[in-house]
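Q: Study each token:
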Amino acid sequence: MVEWRLSEGLVPYDEALSTMEERVAAISEGRAGEMIWLLEHPPLYTAGTSARAEDLTDPDRFPVFKAGRGGQYTYHGPGQRVVYVMLDLNTRGRDVRKFVCRLEDWVIATLAEFGVKGERRAGRVGVWVVRPDRPPSPDGSPAEDKIAAIGVKLRKWVSFHGISINVEPDLSHFDGIVPCGIRDHGVTSLVDLGLPVTMADLDAALRRTFAAAMDSDTRDECTY
């Protein structure tokens, strides 16, 4: 059984890291079960293991933390649902790419609950939405924005860090970084797309779609 934990208020980032470290160790040692932790952070930037210094364009705007997860720079803050996944890949299959694909599947299925078509993109981990309401890109392709970021770390095949989904964050807060190192596309949120979705609505959808997404087998659709 997976434990679901919901934290009210804004959880400091260093406190979240400490809690994840402790839980991952306990899972690895058989002292605790898997856990999914739903929370929000105060405004901050995190740097993944592939972060480039030039992508932190406003270093004094918010605190910056080295996350130790995969990926580049991302933003966390109020109005964004952070989903930390402490899952044991020893029992779920030791396949990092498939695991990331399943996390994307989970986000895509969750967004579909609100009529939003989330999509994956070759070479770009995360979930994207096409924006037909905006002019196309210079190459003629449809405009698109990122709505969810994914970055995980494994220790003894137990995962931590995870997913962030934009419900109603201040999108201008992303201006201090190049989100995930991608300059050619923007970011969006459920409310920015015109959907009056609350955090509780999203949490309920995440619970409904979790089991089926974790059982999916979509690695062939992933190109990273």
Summary: The chain has a mean pLDDT of 91. The first strand starts at residue 3 and ends at 10. The two ends are 30 Å apart (CA to CA).
